[in-house]
Amino acid sequence: MNENKRPETMERITTPQLAEAFIAEQLAALREQIGDKKVLLALSGGVDSSVVAALLIKAVGSQLTCVHVNHGLLRKGEPEQVIRVFREELGAILIYVDAVDRFLDQLAGVADPEKKRKIIGKEFIDVFAEEARKLDGIRFLAQGTIYPDILESGPVKSHHNVGGLPEDLDFELVEPVKFLYKDEVRVVGKALGLPDSMVYRQPFPGPGLGVRCVGAITRDRLEAVRESDAILREEFAKAGLEGKVWQYFTIVPDFKSTGITDGLRTYDWPVVIRAVNTVDAVTAEVAELDFGLVQRIVARITKEVKGVNRVLWDVTPKPSGTIEWE
Ligand code: XMP
Q1: CB of 294 closer than 6 A to ligand 1?
Q2: Around 78, how many Cα atoms within 13 Å sit in the side-chain half-sphere?
Q3: Which of the four CATH numbers 3.30.200.40, 3.90.45.10, 3.40.50.620, 3.40.1080.10 does domain 16-199 have?
Q4: CA–CA separation, 50 vs 185, rounded Å?
Q5: Were both Cys, which of 42, 158, 293, 319 would link to 154 (CB 3.0–4.6 Å)?
Q6: Cβ neighbours of 267 (radius 10 Å)
Q7: Among 323, 325, 326, residue to substitute to test ligand 1 (most atoms within 8 Å of Cβ)
Q8: Distant-in-sequence, close-in-space partners of 313: CB < 8 Å, separation ≥ 6
């Protein structure tokens, strides 16, 4: 049997009942595989790693250690949510690593998109490996691999996943959701009691806001990306579009233009808004947004985000544009 092939008899998990059955089965399998040994998990707060964490907390409790690396490229409120949900509500052992300065220092002055991705990926592994070495007796490494990652062996996830740990860290893998599709992971996450804001999160690239702060990342432009993204998400949620538009976010390019605020000329950055619908991210259509919503977003971003005087709307489908700008 190919251990990377979804069993043909496996029913598609579409209901809470099927999710409960999957959870019961996985808890037994995890307990059997792990025994009384210790497991480590890189917990980004994305739906896949969050579901794996919730399963492992149920299966083996304090034998699990989660590591959450804040690389400074997360969305507003994300590290806080990970800590609140996993440490405070679910009682997980969670190591929070503030690596913001370390990542941003490495990235300073680097404008090439692929170099940025490589630095983020490598730095992530370094930080994670350093934390792993501080811990005694870890035998297993848990990962939120899902079935599309195996099928495509990932144009998407290969960029950033915790593959390729140094040789001294030869953990055995634990991958409880590796046969699930994304929609099934969400059904399981819901049944595990994770909050909707985690379960129904839109896809978020591994290099995070780093690929939306175009060119060489600076802290002020990164803050403009983070703040404008938070406003965009808030306005989409108020308009009832959460979970209805596939992916929506903001980008801050590295050029300025003149504008005017309170009678004074300004020379500031633009924010670009991008909202797309797709089935598989290979092609994408621009989401048709209500113009009143666009105007509310423009008004808030130009008023509330420091260093920004203009908002542009990217209406390019994929192709010819990719979804992200880098
Ligand atoms: P593009 O920009 O290639 O993106 O049209 C397609 C989908 O993949 C996401 N994406 C990434 N995800 N690491 C990831 O985990 C990455 O480096 C990466 N780059 C793009 C993007 O957000 C979109 O959903």
Answers
A1: no
A2: 26
A3: 3.40.50.620
A4: 10
A5: 158
A6: 10
A7: 323
A8: 272, 273, 289, 294
Residue whose Cα lies nearest atom 3 of ligand 1: it is 322
Does residue 322's CB lie within 6 angstroms of at least one atom of ligand 1?
yes
CA–centroid distance, 204 to ligand 1, in Å, is: 7
- Tell me if 323 CB under 6 Å of ligand 1: yes
Report pLDDT digits (tens) over 183-224: 999 999 999 999 999 999 999 999 999 999 999 999 999 999
Q: Identify which of 211, 206, 209, 205 has the alpha carbon closest to the alpha carbon of residue 116.
A: 211
Per residue in 114-141, pLDDT (tens digit) is: 999 999 999 999 999 999 999 999 999 9
185/177 Cα distance (integer angstroms): 7
Whether residue 296 has its Cβ less than 6 Å from ligand 1: no
Domain ranges for the chain, please list them. 16-199, 212-313
Mean pLDDT of the chain: 95
Out of 3.40.50.11540, 3.40.50.970, 1.20.1260.10, 3.30.300.10, select the CATH number for domain 212-313: 3.30.300.10
Cα–Cα distance, 29 to 23 (Å, whole number) = 10
- Please give the DSSP secondary-structure letter assigned to residue 281: S
Cβ atoms within 10 Å of 308's Cβ, excluding its own: 23
Using alpha carbons, list the distances in angstroms from residue 239 to 7, 95, 199, 311: 41, 36, 19, 19
Q: Which residue is closest in CA terms to ligand 1's atom 16?
A: 205
Residue 209's nearest CA partner among 63, 77, 30 is: 77
